[in-house]
C-alpha cells in the first residue's frame, strides 16, 4: 500500500519508526554485508583503481533503486562525483543528500588488521575480540563495530541512506521530497574539484536544501543535526639545518639545530590554551548568535565522560568541548626531526618537519590564514621558501622554512532559524522519538560552505556515526547501533520532511 | 743501528719526521690495507661476534710486535679491553695509549655503501667516485677517504699507532717511554664496564700519562692536542596525550596535544642561543683558566669555512665554535609525534617523543643534571614517570612525561700547565714541524674523566682524524692525509716524548 504525502504526526511518526525498525531487524546481516563490501573497496587517494571501483558500485546501487544516475567530473581522471535523482510525485521540495565514498590515507603498520579487509569486533578497546557476524543467529549485538578504513567516514552514511530507502519501499512509504544524491570521491583530499563540479552542474543540482551526511553524532550518543562545520587548511613546513647530520658534541651550541627551531616555532604559534598567537589570524571570527549559544547550552554535558574515555585529566580550557571548537584551531598533527629511542644518534639533524592543520571558523579564509602566517614568519626573521634552499639562500639566511600549503576551505554556519532548518530538526527528532542534539558547528571539517556559496540554499548536517570511530586514524570503526539509528534518521528525512 | 734515548732537538726532530714519512710513503698500501681489514670487522654492539673478532685481531697485532698482551674484562661476555705492554730499556716514564675498536650503531638504509665493506672514494661529497686504491700506482691521493663504520672513529687511531711503531722499528728508533695500550670495545655504548676494568687493574695500568687516541683534529686540519672533553648524558622523554589518536577537527582546542606540549617543553629548555634555561643546571660550570682562554684565542679562525661547509648562515652565538662548546649543551637529537608529509593525518597524536643529549662540562655530573631537570619539570606542573601512565595517573595529572635516562659521565679538563702537558704539546709540535692546535676541551665526549678519576695522572687527548668524517652518522670516513699525519704524530709521541 502506497501512502499519500500526509505528514507524520506523533502517531504516524511512531508507526514509521516501527516499520523501519522492523525492516532493519530482519535485514541486519544484509545491511552489514553491504557495508563490509563497500569498505573492502580501497577507495583512497593512493588507489585510483579502488576509487573507480567504488564509484561504479555506487552508481549500480542507485540504478537498481530506480534513480537516474551519472558520474560528474570537472577534469579527466578525477574521482567522479556519483550523482543520482529520483522524483517523488507530488513533492514540492527537493533535497540533495551529500556523502563521500573516499577514505583517509592509511598507515598500515598502525592497524590491528588490514584496513581493507573489514573485521567485526566486540567493541573498541584492546580486549575486543573478533566476531564472526555472518555465523551469528538472530540479531547482531548493537555494540559490535566494523573495523576498516572509511567504514565510518563516510561509507556508513551511504549504506544507511540506501537501507532507509529500501525500508521505506518495503513499508510502501513514498518519499516526501524529491531526492538527489551527490557522493563525492575526494573529500579527504580537501575536495579539490568539488566546486567546479557544482558550478558546472548548477541546474542539475538545483534544490531547496542540502543535507550533508558526514561527521559523528554527539558524544553522548544522542542523534544530532549540525548547522555548520569548521573549515580547514593544512601546511607542511620544513626547517633547514646543516647540509649533513653533524656530531652534536663537536657542534652542539654552535650549529643551529632545526629540531630546536621547529619546537620554538610550534611553541610560538599557539599558547597552552590553544589560542593562536599569530596576529590577525583571528580577526575575522564571527561571534556566535543567541540561538547558537542557546543550542550549545542545551547539549548534554559530555566532558567528564570524554575525559575518562580519552584518558585525559582535563581539557585545554575550562569552556568545554563544544564552545572550544567554536574557535579557530591550530593543530600540530606531526613533528619529525632526527631519531628517537633505540635509533637516537647524537647528531644535529639536517631538517625538521612540522605538519599543521588549521581549523577555520566563519568568516576566516585559507588565503587570509596563509597571508597572516607568512607575514608573521617574515616579521620574526624567517625566510619563507616554496622549495628547498640553494647554497645562496643558505649562506644568506639563518632561519629557512619551506611551506607547502594544502588546498583548504572556509568554515560555515547556517542560519538555525529558517523554516527548512526547523523542519529538519523536527523530522529528525520525530524519527528519534526525542529531541535530537543541535550543534551550531562541527569541530571537524566538511566543505559545507561550498554548497551554500554555490547554491544559496540552506545546508544542514546529518551525521550518524559514533564519535569514537577513530576516523582519520588507524582502526577506524563503525558501531552497529549508530548504523541502525542512522537508517531511522535517513528514513525520517526521506519520508517525513516538509516545510 | 739502535739510537740511544737522546731527546730530539730541532734537527733530530726533522730527521725523525723524514724517517717516518719515508717509511709511510713506501708502505701506504699496506697501512690502508690494515685499516680496510680492521674496518671490515663489524665490531658494533649489535654484533658480539664482530666485537670478539676485532679484539682477537688486535691482540695478535700487539703480540707480533713483541707486546705482552691480555684481554681484560670486568664481567663475563663483555667486549674485552685489549691490553698490551712493552718496556723500553732506560725509559723513566710510562704512557698508556687509549683507543676504542668498537663503532657507532648503523642505520644501513642511510649509507651509500655497506658500512662493513670499506670503499675508497675520491672525496666527501655526492660527486665523489669510488677509487680502486689497490690498483693505484705509487702514492695514494691524500684527499681520498675510506668509507666504513669506525674507519675513523676510532680504528684510524689504532692503525696509525701500529704503523708508527713499525716505522720507528724500521728506522732503528727505540721508544722514549714504556708503552702500555688500552683498546676498549664498548666506548660507543657509553663505556659501561670501563671503570670496573680500570679499578680492577690499577697496578697493571699504572703510568705517568694517558694519551687518548680519539676524536677529530681541528677543523682547519691542523694537528691538535686536547686537554679534555665534554661529558654526556642522554634522555628519552615520552609525553602522553589521549589514549587513542583523535580527529583534530572534532577535538582540537579541547583535547591536549602531546606534540604541542613537547614543542613547548623543548622551547622552554633552551633559548635560541642554546643557553639552558633549567635553573641550577649550569651552577657547577667551572670557568676557563687564563691558559685555556689563551689557547682558544690562538686557534686559527675556522667559522667562515665551516659555515660554507655546513651550509649555514651563522652560528647560534657570535662567540665562535670553540668558546661555544666550552659551555654545557642541550641537544635535541630527535622529535617524533604523529605523521608528516604524505602520511600526515588530521589527528591529535597519542604520544610525542623528545630525544635529548646533554653535553656536560666540568664540574657537572649526570646525577646533578637529572636532579635539576626533574625538579624543574615538577615545578612546571609535569608529573615525571619512569613507565607509561596508568588510568589513575591519566585521570589525575594533565602533563605526564616518562623519562628514560641513559648512562652518562661527566666532562673533564686537564691542567694545561703541567710538565707532562707541556712535553706532549712540544713533542706533537716537533712531529708536525709547527705548533699544533691546543684545545682545552673537545665538544664531543670521550670518557677521559674516568682515567683521571681512577689514576690521578694527567690525561691528554691525541686526535688524528678529519673533522668532516661523519662520525656517528652514515657514511663515516677517514681521510688519508689525516692517517698519514697521525702516523707522524704517534711516532713523535712514542720516540720523542720526555719530561
What does this structure look like?
The structure is a homodimer of 499-residue chains. Chain A has 499 residues and is of the alpha/beta class. Helix content of chain A is 32%, strand content 20%. Chain A has helices at residues 10-26, 28-39, 48-64, 155-170, 194-200, 258-269, 290-297, 303-310, 321-324, 366-379, 391-396, 419-432, 448-455, 480-495, and strands at 68-72, 81-86, 94-100, 119-121, 145-147, 178-184, 209-212, 224-226, 228-240, 246-247, 329-338, 347-348, 351-360, 383-385, 400-405, 412-413, 437-439, 442-445, 459-461, 477-479. In chain A, the strands form five sheets. In chain A, strands 9, 11, 13, 14, 15, 16 and 18 form a seven-stranded mixed sheet that branches. Chain A has a six-stranded mixed sheet with strand order 1-2-6-3-7-19, sandwiched between helices. Chain A has two domains: 10-227 and 414-495, Aminopeptidase, CATH 3.40.630.10; 231-288 and 326-405, Alpha-Beta Plaits. Chain A is built from 14 helices and 20 strands. Chain A is globular. The two termini of chain A are 25 Å apart. At the A-B interface, strand 9, strand 10, helix 6, helix 8 and strand 11 of A face strand 9, strand 10, helix 6, helix 8 and strand 11 of B.
Amino acid at each position: 500500500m502506497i501512502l499519500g504525502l500526509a505528514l507524520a504526526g506523533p502517531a504516524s511518526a511512531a508507526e514509521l519508526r516501527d516499520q523501519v525498525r522492523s525492516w532493519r531487524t530482519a535485514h541486519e546481516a544484509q545491511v552489514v554485508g553491504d557495508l563490509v563490501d563497500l569498505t573492502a573497496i580501497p577507495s583512497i587517494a593512493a588507489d585510483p583503481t579502488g576509487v573507480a571501483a567504488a564509484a561504479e558500485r555506487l552508481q549500480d546501487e542507485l540504478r537498481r533503486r530506480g534513480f537516474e544516475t551519472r558520474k560528474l567530473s570537472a577534469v579527466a581522471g578525477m574521482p567522479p562525483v556519483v550523482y543520482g535523482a529520483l522524483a517523488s510525485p507530488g513533492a514540492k521540495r527537493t533535497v540533495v543528500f551529500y556523502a563521500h565514498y573516499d577514505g583517509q590515507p592509511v598507515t598500515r603498520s598502525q592497524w590491528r588488521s588490514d584496513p581493507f579487509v573489514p573485521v567485526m569486533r566486540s567493541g573498541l578497546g584492546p580486549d575486543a575480540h573478533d566476531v564472526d557476524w555472518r555465523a551469528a543467529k538472530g540479531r547482531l549485538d548493537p555494540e559490535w563495530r566494523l573495523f576498516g578504513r572509511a567504514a565510518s567516514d563516510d561509507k556508513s552514511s551511504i549504506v544507511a541512506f540506501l537501507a532507509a530507502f529500501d525500508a521505506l519501499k518495503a513499508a510502501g512509504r513514498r518519499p516526501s521530497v524529491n531526492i538527489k544524491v551527490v557522493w563525492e570521491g575526494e573529500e579527504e583530499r580537501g575536495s579539490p574539484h568539488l566546486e567546479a563540479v557544482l558550478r558546472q552542474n548548477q541546474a542539475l543540482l538545483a534544490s531547496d536544501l542540502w543535507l550533508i551526511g558526514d561527521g559523528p553524532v554527539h558524544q553522548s550518543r544522542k542523534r544530532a543535526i549540525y548547522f555548520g562545520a569548521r573549515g580547514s587548511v593544512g601546511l607542511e613546513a620544513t626547517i633547514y639545518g646543516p647540509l649533513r647530520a653533524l656530531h652534536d658534541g663537536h657542534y652542539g651550541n654552535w650549529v643551529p639545530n632545526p629540531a630546536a627551531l621547529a619546537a620554538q616555532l610550534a611553541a610560538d604559534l599557539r599558547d597552552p590554551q590553544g589560542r593562536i598567537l599569530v596576529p590577525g589570524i583571528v580577526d575575522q571570527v564571527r561571534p556566535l548568535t543567541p540561538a547558537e549559544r542557546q543550542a550549545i547550552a542545551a547539549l548534554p554535558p559530555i566532558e567528564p565522560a570524554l575525559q575518562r574515555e580519552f584518558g585525559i585529566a582535563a581539557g585545554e580550557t575550562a569552556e568545554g568541548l563544544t564552545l572550544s571548537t567554536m574557535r579557530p584551531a591550530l593543530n600540530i598533527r606531526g613533528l619529525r626531526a632526527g631519531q628517537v629511542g633505540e635509533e637516537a644518534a647524537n647528531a644535529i639533524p639536517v631538517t625538521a618537519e612540522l605538519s599543521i592543520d588549521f581549523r577555520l571558523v566563519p568568516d576566516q579564509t585559507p588565503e587570509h590564514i596563509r597571508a597572516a602566517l607568512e607575514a608573521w614568519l617574515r616579521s620574526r626573521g624567517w625566510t619563507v621558501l616554496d622549495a628547498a634552499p640553494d647554497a645562496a639562500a643558505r649562506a644568506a639566511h639563518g632561519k629557512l622554512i619551506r611551506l607547502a600549503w594544502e588546498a583548504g576551505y572556509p568554515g560555515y554556519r547556517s542560519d538555525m532559524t529558517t523554516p527548512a532548518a526547523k523542519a529538519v530538526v523536527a523530522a529528525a527528532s520525530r524519527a528519534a522519538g526525542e529531541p535530537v542534539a543541535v550543534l551550531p558547528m562541527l569541530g571537524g571539517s566538511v566543505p559545507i560552505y561550498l554548497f551554500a556559496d554555490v547554491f544559496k540554499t540552506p545546508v544542514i548536517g546529518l551525521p550518524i556515526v559514533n564519535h569514537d570511530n577513530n576516523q582519520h586514524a588507524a582502526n577506524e570503526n563503525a558501531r552497529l547501533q549508530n548504523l541502525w539509528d542512522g537508517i531511522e534518521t535517513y528514513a525520517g528525512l526521506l519520508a517525513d520532511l516538509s516545510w
